[in-house]
Task: structure prediction
Amino acid sequence: MKTFVHRGQITKVVFGSGTRSRIPEEADALGCRRVLVLCTPDQTDRAGRMADLLGAAAAGTFTGAAPHTPVEVTEKAVAHARSVAADAVLAVGGGSTVGLGKAITARTGLPQLALPTTYAGSEMTPILGETEGGSKTTRRLTDVRPRTVVYDVELTHTLPAAVSVVSGVNAMAHAVEALYARDGDPVAFLMAGEALDALARSLPLIARRPDDVEARADALYGAWLAGTCLGTVGMALHHKVCHVLGGTFGLPHAEIHTVVLPHVVAYNAPAAGEAMARIARALPGDDPADALFDLAGRLGAPRALRDLGMPESGIERAAELVVRDGYWNPRPVERRAVTALLTRAWAGERP
Ligand code: NAD
Result:
């Protein structure tokens, strides 16, 4: 018998195609009358259309969301939200925009609605990562979860194939670590397995044809489940390594996850048999780490940290940071083994 604790989600989720048209009624259901729409600079037009759709319930747009939620951007956005008397924010975008929404919620208490446009999954988590003075800190704050998440598959059609595949593997990484989480539970395990199945079958189709409607729906469904896993159970070595590499060398988020995942799976394989068996169901092959490495190759995704701009001289520093703060992982985190893992990932070698 397995003893477990399962934490249910409080977020309302609407999933479908064309569902963004429901945003006004979802805002109304939360009692929101002045919604500030958030986006990154390159989704300005889309955010403007959402403000138009909200009509009298819109309080304008803030178009300055940036990767890793810089505190100076948040401060500007909070000042803007106050100046227009916003009573809610609507994040239209990926993890960067949802992150800004969470940072605003943390400072003002304003509720967030989210309309995700990538597969990062931040909209389903209570995790707020922020950068200040070049260093990134992460907190779990239950209240920063968006109240309502509307997944509209149509919005993902514009995500370029190359960005889609790394964003999709980023989602797979949440699912993989949920399979062996210390506080894992049967529901999280089911969601993680289903997420891996959906992403493993859809990403190769999207890489070939980014306008494949069914594959896009499948990938977003997998991303929702994977994000829910990330928000439900604790992550381990993979997320720690990616956090260190992103924070220390400023490497791109989803690409780091794509390169590192096969190597961490190889590292943890001896200590996580049940998880490995489930990954192998989604990605058939003799070895789950090899299957993930081959998948990245087939998708044309990066497989070497050096190709993302990490200096070879950074390997030892990264290993030191990864092992410095003790934390749980199915296999103990040892400095020499982590250095070997990073060396292979840096060079793009098979795990
Ligand atoms: P992103 O939000 O930075 O988006 C990447 C780029 O793609 C941006 O320029 C964006 O404008 C563009 N884009 C997004 N959707 C698009 C679409 N449909 N069509 C065309 N262009 C589009 O990238 P991301 O990978 O979604 O998020 C990364 C950030 O999210 C990182 O800062 C990461 O730390 C954070 N994150 C946080 C959590 C969490 O739980 N807190 C989880 C995952 C990621």
